[in-house]
Amino acid sequence: MDEFISGGNSTVPKTNDSAKNTKYQKRNVYIWDMDETLILLKSLLNGMYAEVFNGLKDVQKGVEIGKMWERHILQVCDEYFFYEQIENCNNPSLDALSQYDDGRDLSDYDFNLDGFSSSYDDINKRKLAYRHRVIAQKYKKGLHSLFDQDMIKLWDDLYDVTDNYTDRWLSSARACLEQCSGGNKELTPCIDSADTKFQHINVLVTSGSLIPSL
């Protein structure tokens, strides 16, 4: 029986002789605005978050929390994500220049001596693609693979302080994301014995620079 895969605005049939049932793949795409939605930063730094509460929140405390986030984020970006080198080379995603990456083994590559500059020619695009590849690999492993216990505690404490100050804003956003990214959901078929599967895709968008936003 034919298996139908929904793609774009059309439904494309794909023959699968071994399939016994018709399966319909449905895709739920959630687009999340990170800026002052999933995370808070700018409104902490400029005091606007606290001002909304008409004196119930300590404005200066919020500003100090925002400054701590800003300082630690930039420190991580500089130390692990080449931010000092690529700050002026913003791209929409880490795979935006993947076509320039020739797959070279980077285990012995010296990123401080490769002559990279912000000039947007093909040579520098390849060097930038190398950096994006390394950043993606580190990001996939998680910051726990980079930080020692003291640094992990520092970030955990900052998260808790921020969550308490914002009445669990971060925890609520995280719980919502986890619920929406809970994998494929099997639903009771509505026609005959067909299976309906849902795939959940989360897309994060931001007006900020790529590397600090990660």
UniProtKB/TrEMBL annotation:
<dbReference type="InterPro" id="IPR038102">
    <property type="entry name" value="EYA_dom_sf"/>
</dbReference>
<feature type="active site" description="Nucleophile">
    <location>
        <position position="33"/>
    </location>
</feature>
<feature type="binding site">
    <location>
        <position position="35"/>
    </location>
    <ligand>
        <name>Mg(2+)</name>
    </ligand>
</feature>
<keyword id="KW-0479">Metal-binding</keyword>
<dbReference type="GO" id="GO:0030154">
    <property type="term" value="P:cell differentiation"/>
</dbReference>
<dbReference type="InterPro" id="IPR028472">
    <property type="entry name" value="EYA"/>
</dbReference>
<protein>
    <recommendedName>
        <fullName>protein-tyrosine-phosphatase</fullName>
        <ecNumber>3.1.3.48</ecNumber>
    </recommendedName>
</protein>
<dbReference type="InterPro" id="IPR006545">
    <property type="entry name" value="EYA_dom"/>
</dbReference>
<feature type="active site" description="Proton donor">
    <location>
        <position position="35"/>
    </location>
</feature>
<keyword id="KW-0378">Hydrolase</keyword>
<dbReference type="GO" id="GO:0046872">
    <property type="term" value="F:metal ion binding"/>
</dbReference>
<dbReference type="GO" id="GO:0005634">
    <property type="term" value="C:nucleus"/>
</dbReference>
<keyword id="KW-0904">Protein phosphatase</keyword>
<dbReference type="GO" id="GO:0004725">
    <property type="term" value="F:protein tyrosine phosphatase activity"/>
</dbReference>
<feature type="binding site">
    <location>
        <position position="33"/>
    </location>
    <ligand>
        <name>Mg(2+)</name>
    </ligand>
</feature>
<dbReference type="GO" id="GO:0045739">
    <property type="term" value="P:positive regulation of DNA repair"/>
</dbReference>
<comment type="similarity">
    <text>Belongs to the HAD-like hydrolase superfamily. EYA family.</text>
</comment>
<keyword id="KW-0460">Magnesium</keyword>
